[in-house]
Amino acid sequence: MTVMNRQSLHLGLDAQPQQVSLVRRALQTWLAANGWPDSATDELVFAVVEAFSNSVQHAYPGFASGRVTIELALQATTPGRMRVLAVVTDFGHWRDAGAHPCPGNGLALIRSVSQGMTLATGDAGTCLTVWTDDEELVAAERR
To answer: Which keywords, in A-to-Z order, does the entry hold (predicted)?
Structure first.
C-alpha cells in the first residue's frame, strides 16, 4: 500500500527483495515532487533502501515473509530550513551482529550518509529513523 501527499509518504510492503526497486522509485518520486536537492536525495534513498534491505534479510529468518513500513515526512526545522525524516519499521526479530554468520556494514553505511540515525529494537520489531536536512538549499540561499 502506498499513500503519498505533499507532506508525507507511507509505504506498506512485503519484506521481499523484489520490492527494492519500488521503494527506490517511490522515494525518488516523492522527494522530486517536494523539490528536494539531488545530492541529498541520493544519500537519503540509499539509506532508506539499505534499511529496507536489512529488514528483508534479517528480520524474518525462517519465515516466508513479513511486512515493512516506510514513512517519510517533510518537516520545517527552523525558518527557511526543511528536514526529511524517514522511519523504516519491521515487525520481525532483531538479531545481534554476532548472531549472523556474515554481519554486514548496513548500519554503518546508513550512519555515514545521513545527518542522523536512531535505532530501536524490541520484541515487536525494529524501527530505524534517519534524517537529512536541506543543506544544499541553505547553501544556495547564502550565496
So the answer is: ATP-binding, Kinase, Nucleotide-binding, Serine/threonine-protein kinase, Transferase
